[in-house]
Amino acid sequence: MSNIFAAVLKSVYAQSTAVLARQVILHGACVGSSNPDAWFPPEPTSRSDAGKDLALVEYEATARQLCGSCPVRAECLELALREEYDLPRSWFHGIRGGAAPWERQTMVSNRRRTARRLAARQTAPDEAVA
Ligand code: SF4
């Protein structure tokens, strides 16, 4: 993820889910497309982390190309991450926010890990009191 896109994503983080959904519906480049199936290309069967194979790279390139000029890409990605947060990995499909399903799985996993860490910190006994 580019630094610029990461900064934009950070700026939409504070927006409500309803606002994000509305922006995507109103301005998404894929909304009303004559070929909506383009955002659901056949997924590579292998999602191994051990070296990316060509099918994964091509899928990710397709995602960047399809969503590259979308004016609400950051909003769309943030919305996808919220909607997919509680889903099992096998339910992630299609291109959203310029990201392939396995890329969003990684982002969601990172969010879950951060949330668990924060929750653990809040429930930990106060070490300052002895
Ligand atoms: S970022 Fe991609 S998937 Fe999301 S609304 Fe835009 S074109 Fe559609």
UniProtKB/TrEMBL annotation:
Task: Tell me which residues make up the 4Fe-4S Wbl-type domain.
Answer: 29-106
Q: Which InterPro entries does the protein's record reference?
A: 4FE4S_WBL (IPR034768)
This protein's source sits in the domain of life called Bacteria
**By what name is this protein known?**
4Fe-4S Wbl-type domain-containing protein
Per the UniProt record, the lineage of the source organism begins with: Bacteria, Bacillati, Actinomycetota, Actinomycetes, Streptosporangiales
